[in-house]
Design brief:
about 300 residues, globular
């Protein structure tokens, strides 16, 4: 790993969203360039790859045909491959040079949930490990992050304990036919994932966008019956996110916000707020995705869908 000068993360669907989070995490901790490829695009592309590139595939099942084809293509070029997979002994695991197992347990339904959590966690750890190897993540900062990671299960439990409030919000919005999900930086892929969970479970049209990109087209759709879900924790882009929320409000669009506990500023603009515990800026995705999974679940059940 110390000889790697570039990483290409390749995956599909939910795993691809985790890869986008991984790009932010690894570049921040390790200062190494990371590119994310959608496997179904990469496999048919004539993509030059330098020898010091590591191709990292991310897959819950370890059997997704496009992801497998993409890593086979890389291997044919003599590029080293690392797989982050859940299913032990799966084809992608067997055909890669090295594996990191998620050990999330089996995904029961079609919707990837706990696997996504583990993918983001493992990409965080991979970024930190690379950062330590390359000397870009100081020991003290690494220790602080590890200590904070240890609090994440308890914080997720707190979110699960507040599920009744998420059900209440679901009851308010489940008849809507369109949703926009927005977030910035490392919470942008969480917006993508929230939208995917909603459409996959409830058959409602939903799109994820980087918050500011919304004004370059999608804002035209905003109306009183078109809710926006903002992922807006107290991080360095908080103020920017709030000004995007105000743009939605000016067009009378309802807003559901996922915000940091105690944040009164968000409550002034949003119609409904789901609070999550405070954590490190870089670990927020591990928390912000959980209420979005629950929201999609409740909306789907209320619409009579078999989750
Ligand atoms: O098993 P994989 O992670 O390779 O699957 C990739 C996608 O098909 C998968 O993540 C899909 O998007 C999920 N069902 C979404 O919840």
């Amino acid at each position: 790993l110390s000889r790697i000068h570039r990483l290409v993360l390749v995956a599909c669907g939910t795993s691809w969203h985790a890869a986008i989070a991984g790009e932010y995490l690894i570049e921040n901790f390790a200062g190494v360039p990371v590119e994310v490829e959608c496997a179904s695009e990469m496999r048919y592309r004539n993509r030059p790859l330098e020898k010091d590139t590591l191709v990292v595939s991310i897959s819950q099942s370890g059997e997704t045909a496009d992801t497998l084809a993409a890593i086979r293509g890389a291997r044919d070029l003599g590029i080293r491959t690392l797989a982050i997979v859940n299913v032990v002994g799966s084809t992608i695991a067997r055909e890669s040079d090295a594996d990191i197992y998620m050990r999330a347990g089996p995904e029961i339904g079609v919707a990837s949930t706990k696997a996504f959590e583990m993918q983001v966690l493992l990409l965080t750890l991979l970024g930190m490990a690379l950062g330590r190897l390359r000397g870009t993540l100081p020991t003290a900062q690494g220790r602080k992050l590890v200590n904070e990671l240890k609090t994440i299960p308890r914080k997720i439990q707190q979110i699960l304990d507040g599920d009744g409030h998420i059900l209440h919000i679901a009851k308010k919005y489940y008849r809507c036919t369109d949703f926009l999900y927005m977030g910035r930086q490392i919470n942008f892929p969480i917006a993508l994932e929230g939208a995917l969970k909603l459409k996959e479970l409830s058959y409602i049209h939903a799109e994820g966008y980087p918050s500011a990109e919304m004004k370059h087209g999608p804002i035209a759709l905003i109306a009183p019956d078109f809710p926006s879900v903002f992922v807006v924790p107290r991080d360095p882009v908080f103020d920017k996110n709030v000004s995007n929320m105000e743009e939605i409000k000016a067009r009378k669009g309802p807003i559901i916000a996922v915000a940091t506990a105690g944040d009164k500023e968000v409550a002034r603009t949003a119609d409904d707020v789901i609070y999550i515990p405070r954590t490190s800026d870089w670990l927020y995705p591990l928390l912000t995705v959980v209420p979005l999974q629950l929201l999609a679940y409740h909306i789907a059940v209320l619409r009579g869908c078999d989750v």
